[in-house]
Structure formats: structure tokens, C-alpha cells
């Protein structure tokens, strides 16, 4: 017998990543769709959508229908990028206002916050409404910003974010980490010695109904296709990838490179030119998340490099599980 609607646990899921982004599709929607399908949870998703994504009316309608069909409720807010601190403060304030309305009208019992900005909202709601707070940290965000060269070490933004991180860890009912190594690092934090939160290890997911080993015949002397998926900046370093492409070409001159990337095509082309890789050997394209498995099926192997830095101890590359699912 299915659970009565008013018996379902009311959950507010907060994500500073948009549901219309590939990351929102793979790492937010896929989880929540499965949870909603159990009939045990009444889930409202509050996300921050980028302007360029929101202006794609056809895509917006498709995501709305996708969310509705999954039995989820979607409350999209506009994401503001600049100036950084005031824009983020505004987004946070608006999130608290809208989140408060949802807690009041929907009887929210659990607030699941994806990463740090969303957790500021969640902590405010916990103090105001007594909701349980799940801190889904996604990695050591402040340290990731430093390691990616976005923030300066010991800058005001870094110190403020670490202050918030401490409060999230001290007041969360549950802390979700993408890696066991991240949990071990947090257990060593001096301020958690006397009060260890409940830690849960939940790595990034891959929908194996989408990401499957392609059914294609083996062709003798077929052209080798090497792939690259995702961002090429920050803690992913593209320069050694370009060097690897160059070395592969030296041994297999007919090799082709297929790169799936949204916004960094000019940078990628510049790095490839610097290594002397001919443009004819490379295909760079941006695709919707639903089309990524089809493109991965064209790849024989993939290459990517991550900076060996402290912050990455608490992270897990989303694309790894998806690539493994494709064989």
C-alpha cells in the first residue's frame, strides 16, 4: 500500500547550482528523482539558475516537465555572479526569505543543503524553524577556491568561508562527504574533538540507465578516439592533458580527440595549438546532459588530470563514474 501524502517527510533541498546545468541534472535531479519515487518524501527543490540557462525557454520548459513528472516541486531563483560578495549575500538573503516561506507553508522538517552558500540558508532556517540540517559539503570549498587560484590564501573571503564551515560542521545534524578521506580529515579538526557530527559517505552518482557500455562492433584498424569531458580550468589542469594528446599523436597519428566542454573552448584551443596539435584532429562541442552518454560512446579512452592538492581529498569527480559506466 502506498504511503499517504500527508505522512511523507517534507524536505527542502537547496542547491546553489542550477537544476538546468549538467551538474544539477547529474548530481541533484538523479538523486531526488529516486527518493521521490519511494513515495516517502515530499521534496521541494530550491535552486539558483544562471541567466543564460534560464533564457533557453525550450530547455526551461523541458526541465519543468521533467521535475513535475518525477513528483518534485521546483522553486527556481536567479543566480547573481557580480560583484561577488554582494551578489552572493543577496542570493543568500533571498534564499532565507523564500526558504522561510516554504518552511512555514510546506511544514518542512529536513533541509538538505548542497555546498556552502546553500548551507548559510539552511543554518538560518534551522535556527528559525528547528528544521534538521544536512550539510552536503561537496568538498572543502574555501580550499578549493584557493587551490584553483580564484581566492588568495588567508584573504577575507577565505577566512569568512572557513568561519562558516566551522559553524556548519558544529551545527549540522548530518554531514555528507564525497570521500572517506574527507571524513578522516574532518575528524582531526580541533573544534570537532568534543562533538563529532554524524558523517555519511555518499560519492558522486552516475545513472547507469543513461551511462551504459555501448553496443558497437569491433572494427579492425578503426580510428582511435580519445575523449575529455568537463571543465578545463581550476583544479582540473588541461595543460598535461594537451601534452598527453601530443604524445598519443606521436604513436598514433590518426588519433582523433573529442572534447565535451561548455564555456572554455578558446582556452582549450589555445593550449592545443601550443602543443602543436592540428585543429583537424580535434572536435570540441557543448552538449546537453542527456546527450553526454551518446558522445561518450564515441570515445575509446579518456584523459584528465586533477591538481594533487589538499582540497581534493574531500571530492570525487562526477565524470569518473559516468565514464566507467560507459566502459
As laid out across the biggest beta sheet, the strand order is: 3-2-1-4-5-6-7
Q: Which structural category do the helix and sheet elements fall into?
A: alpha/beta
Give the helix tally: 12
What is the CATH superfamily label of the largest domain? Glycogen Phosphorylase B
Number of strands: 11
The CATH topology of the largest domain turns out to be Rossmann fold
- Assembly type of the chains comes to single chain
Q: Give Rg in angstroms.
A: 21 Å
Mean pLDDT, to the nearest integer, reads 91
Distance between the termini: 39 Å
Please summarize the sheet with the most strands.
7 strands, parallel
Shape: globular
Order of helices and strands: EHEHHEHEHEHHEHEEHEHEHEH
Percent of residues in helices comes to: 40-55%
Q: In CATH, what is the class of the largest domain?
A: Alpha Beta
Fold and architecture overview:
The structure is a single chain. The protein contains twelve helices and eleven strands. The protein is an alpha/beta fold and 327 residues long. It folds into two domains: 5-201, Rossmann fold (3-Layer(aba) Sandwich); 225-325, Glycogen Phosphorylase B (Rossmann fold). The strands form two sheets. The chain has a seven-stranded parallel β-sheet, sandwiched between helices. Strand 4 (110-114), helix 5 (116-129) and strand 5 (132-136) form a beta-alpha-beta unit. It is globular. It starts with 8 loop residues before the first strand and ends with a helix. The model has no long low-confidence stretch (mean pLDDT 91).
